[in-house]
Amino acid sequence: MKQMIVHCQENRTEMALLDEGKLVEFASEKTREQGLLGSFFKGRVVNVIPGMQAAFVDIGQKRNAFLYVDDVLHPNLEKHAKIKPAISELLRVGQEIVVQVLKEPVGSKGARVTTHYSLPGRWIVYMPEADYVAVSKKIATEEERARLRSLGEKLRRRGEGLIIRTVSQKESLEAIAGDLEELREQWKLIQEKSHQLSAPLLLHRDMSMVQRLIRDVFTPGEDELVIDNEGQARDAAAYLKQINGGRESRITSYTKPEPIFCAMGVKGQLERDFARKVWLAGGGYVVIDHTEALTVIDVNTGKYTGGSTLEETVTETNVQAAVEIARLIRLRDIGGIIIIDFIDMEEEQNRRRVTDALDECLKKDRTQTYVVGWTRLGLLELTRKKVREEKTLS
């Protein structure tokens, strides 16, 4: 069972997601400054750079957004085609264009935007111009994948694209069709607004953080939502009722004087898990360091001496570390290149045990992560999609 713990302050909302009591996700959002990710803007092209095959677009933010040529071409065009049209053939300075934020602004860089539009719903992701149906890779059974793909092809109109989300397993045609109609209406409103007003202009912003996380990770009827603001609790209950076919969900309005994160055991876990050194249950520990280019994670045996041989001790520490690292990467929202320096192992089968443990735990992460493999120096390389600045405790 998962618990979503929400702490509402005057200017900020914080959310902690617990899975069987263990902290797996943390999110924070200023009440008046929601993130840009997923938002639609009508922008104006201010610079076209042929040498970079990219353009800069004014979307009304502090820094201009970056639009790469692949994100201007039709979604069905092979991204790695050897011959691509020049960006200057596709865009011109002064041109107004509807874009969607693909990556949040990070540091001195503006947002990265795309014209490959997508609108996430409860059961599907709607892509108004993609012209294909895809099914989440996390749906394992071929029979269910085939059913959902067939359902998607039946529901979509010519030119539309759909991604069937993992939570759609065993879901009815009517529920998914209802989700699709709502998303079509959202897209229609975005288009109408873009035709009426000039750039730069915000056309559509994604839901609040709490609603997004309810939509993406909360299972009505199984999971519990605990929130320390009665008004927000009522709003969450109404939204859950809407996406759960009118059925009630487990929502608790927390009213005790002790801060909710302290009472629910979140504060201590946050302090532990966002430290540079994180101890493992068996006595080993990992150290997480960040550079401009990548994140480095070092694994050490520490106090762990449980194995009957050195190789066994090392392997058990590494397996424990792999499980914890997968959780910490998700919790801290670490993106980009990640290098893990596991303790040296002699046997190939033990290295496979470690990568298998890491792979299995990474399946729980909604952000795409790719394990590249072991380097000749015995380091494990992986990359994780970077869409926001890494989370830190304020």
TrEMBL record:
It comes from the Bacteria. InterPro entries: NA-bd_OB-fold, RNA-bd_AU-1/RNase_E/G, RNase_E/G, S1_domain. The keyword Metal-binding applies. Coiled coil: none annotated. Residues 38-116 form the S1 motif domain. Keywords: Hydrolase, Magnesium, Metal-binding, RNA-binding. Its cofactor is Mg(2+). Gene3D superfamilies: Nucleic acid-binding proteins. PANTHER family: RIBONUCLEASE, RIBONUCLEASE G. This is Rne/Rng family ribonuclease.
